[in-house]
Structure formats: C-alpha cells, structure tokens
Design goal:
Layout (H helix, E strand, L loop, with lengths): L16 E9 L6 E6 L7 E2 L2 E3 L6 H13 L1 E14 L5 E13 L4 H5 L4 E5 H9 L3 H12 L30
Parallel strand pairs: 1-6
Antiparallel strand pairs: 1-2, 1-4, 2-3, 2-7, 5-6
C-alpha cells in the first residue's frame, strides 16, 4: 500500500475524508478513460485520485493526484459531481473530467510502487470497476447519464483558477 510521508488527511465538517479524482480521457470525445492499478491490489483497476491536502482546492488536488498516480497532465474540465462513500470509509470525492494532453514515460507512482495505467473504452471501464470499486463505476455512469460533451449538457460550475478570463465554453446563443 502506498504511504506518503507528511500526508495530512483532511475532513469536512461532517467527518468525511476530503478526496479528489479525475476521469482522464484520451480526447474530448470522452470515449476512452485512463485507469491505474490499485496500490493495495495491483491486479485491480481504479480511477486516479486521493486525499486533499490542507488548504488545497478540490480542482488542484485532482490535478495533482492524476499527475502522481497516472503520470498525465491535461486540460481540466467540468466538475462531474461529488460522490460519497458512506458504508465503511466516509469519503467525499470531488470528481472532475480531464482531457489528457501529456503522458509521462516515468512518473512518481510507477517508479515508487510499480503502478500501471491503461486506456479503457468507457463501457469496459465500468465493467472492470463494478466488481471491486463500484463508486468509481458510478463516476462513469453519471458521465454517461449527463450526455456527451457536445450536446450542451456539459456546462458545469466553473473551476476556480482554470480560466483567468472566466469565459464560458458555450454562450447561451450557441444552444
């Protein structure tokens, strides 16, 4: 299992551990998603994400986590939603969409713990995740319910700091 020195777990006022993650897509078509091997169970796939640091914004944590766990950089898109895992862990995870623009050959978790990454068609990723990470499968199910990125349903709350001019992707007349 991955253990980070000096990591401080952060919790919201209701006692949920604050986490952030990204669905990393190969293109803006959002038809292929990048999954990484679990640090605890290397033969299982997960959505890259992890705990937020104190004073860290969810969007910044999500970008940092995918850089550390998946070795990718990209264009941060919309907030897909905030997902809760209540039963045993009490996690509250902010999940964003990220379009990958750069793939590192070697990255932190590949070197330190041998983490792997692989592209999956969205339908295949849902099947792979449903058996051991059903909450991660829910992220992709919600993405599918929200529609494709080109049908006008993708306008989401703006991510603080992502666009210095705060120009929306679509103007109301474009719909």
């Amino acid at each position: 299992m991955k253990c980070k020195p000096n990591q401080t777990r952060t919790y919201d006022p209701e006692g949920f551990k604050k986490r952030a993650a990204c669905l990393c897509f190969r293109s803006e078509c959002e038809d292929e998603v990048l999954l990484v091997s679990s640090s605890r169970y290397p033969d299982r796939w997960i959505v890259p994400g992890g705990g937020m640091e104190p004073e860290e914004e969810p969007s910044g944590a999500a970008v940092r986590e995918v850089y550390e766990e998946a070795g990718v950089k990209g264009k941060l898109g919309r907030l897909l939603g905030v997902f809760e895992q209540n039963q045993d862990r009490k996690h509250r995870t902010y999940v964003y969409v990220l379009t990958v623009t750069e793939i590192l050959e070697d990255w932190e978790d590949s070197v330190s713990i041998g983490r792997k990454r692989e592209w999956f068609k969205v339908e295949d990723a849902i099947k792979v995740l449903q058996c051991h990470k059903p909450v991660h499968a829910e992220y992709l199910e919600k993405l599918k319910q929200g529609g494709s990125p080109t049908n006008g349903n993708s306008v989401a709350p703006s991510v603080p700091g992502s666009d210095p001019y705060n120009v929306p992707d679509k103007l109301p007349d474009d719909q």
